[in-house]
Amino acid sequence: MGRRRSNPNLRRVNGILLLDKPAGLTSNAALQIVKKLYAARKAGHTGSLDPLATGLLPLCFGEATKVSGFLLDADKDYQVSCRLGERTSTGDAEGELLEQRPVAAVTEEQFRRVLEEFVGEIEQIPPMYSALKHKGERLYKLARQGVEVEREARQVTVFELELVRLALPMVEIRVHCSKGTYVRTLVEDIGEQLGCGAHVFALRRVGVGPFDESQMIDMDRLEAVASEGHHALDQLLLPMESALTQWPDVRLSGNAAFYLRQGQPVLVPKAPTSGWVRLYEGESRFLGMGEILDDGRVAPRRLMVAP
């Protein structure tokens, strides 16, 4: 078979867009809409949000897809509306109601005490309505067929749980957690610990790694800007290296940058002694990601293709 030709009308776009995903769209559907607006050759998202969920969905274009894995592994922040006293088949408001229990006895003091029990390293059993695979089949597809399979517990970390508002049967919390944390499972487990059950009524992601909700662009604004042309859309993109602000910078001379681009580790005066770093040629040209070797040299790990 011949090699597929790329569409000549698509553009090489590099950068990160912080999309405010609307409810009702899958993450991939939202990505395809935005990718089409940008006429971008290459783009990907950094971890799915359920169709029910809204909020921060970083979209990486072009060379920025090389940093998407680091955002996938980053900590997340969520604003969660929970309904106490009701347990559903999916753990959220879209599922079938399975059970109702009274909630009148739940107090704010009791709720805060229960939240404290879930801060730190905890184990979760992934829900059946998730994208994990069992023998090559997505769990949510099996769940829709009425099939339930055994899932192994996973360890995740909840860094912070904050009670925002309690107005029974509704409660609003904020969650700061590690990658892989299932918020629906967390809410269900909190509900069971309270003795009344609970499910996620609404879920909004407000933070991913270094990014927060203040930087998000919603679909309406994006479509309005798109009417001004691709140049205007490109102004909304963040630089690729903005996803890696937790790493120190290493500035290379032109000579050192040349050898690094050939795949060779280089010695850089005053470089950090360990860990991952952001690589620059001179003051501003971002080269990619590197790692400090045991002997102190800087090794290239993921380099960007020069425009």
Task: Describe the overall structure.
- The protein folds into 3 domains: 15-73 and 211-240, 2-Layer Sandwich (Pseudouridine synthase), CATH 3.30.2350.10; 76-207, Pseudouridine synthase (2-Layer Sandwich); 247-303, PUA domain (Archaeosine Trna-guanine Transglycosylase, Chain: A, domain 4), CATH 2.30.130.10.
- It is 21% helix and 34% strand.
- It contains 8 helices and 18 strands.
- Strands 1, 2, 3, 4, 7, 10, 11, 12, 13 and 14 form a 10-stranded mixed β-sheet that branches. A 4-stranded mixed β-sheet has the order 15-16-17-18.
- Strand 16 and strand 17 (285-292) form a beta hairpin.
- The longest helix has 12 residues, at 27-38.
- The mean pLDDT is 90.
Number of domains: 3
Instruction: Describe the largest sheet.
Output: 10 strands, mixed
Gap between N and C termini, in Å? Answer: 30 Å
Residue share in helix: 10-25%
The CATH top-level class label of the largest domain: Alpha Beta
In total, the number of strands is 18
Shape, principal axes of CA atoms: globular
Under the CATH scheme, the architecture of the largest domain is 2-Layer Sandwich
Q: Flag low-confidence runs.
A: none
Radius of gyration, in Å, reads: 22 Å
Name the helix and strand elements from N-terminus to C-terminus, one letter apiece: EHEEHEEEHEEEHEEHEEEHHEHEEE
Mean pLDDT: 90
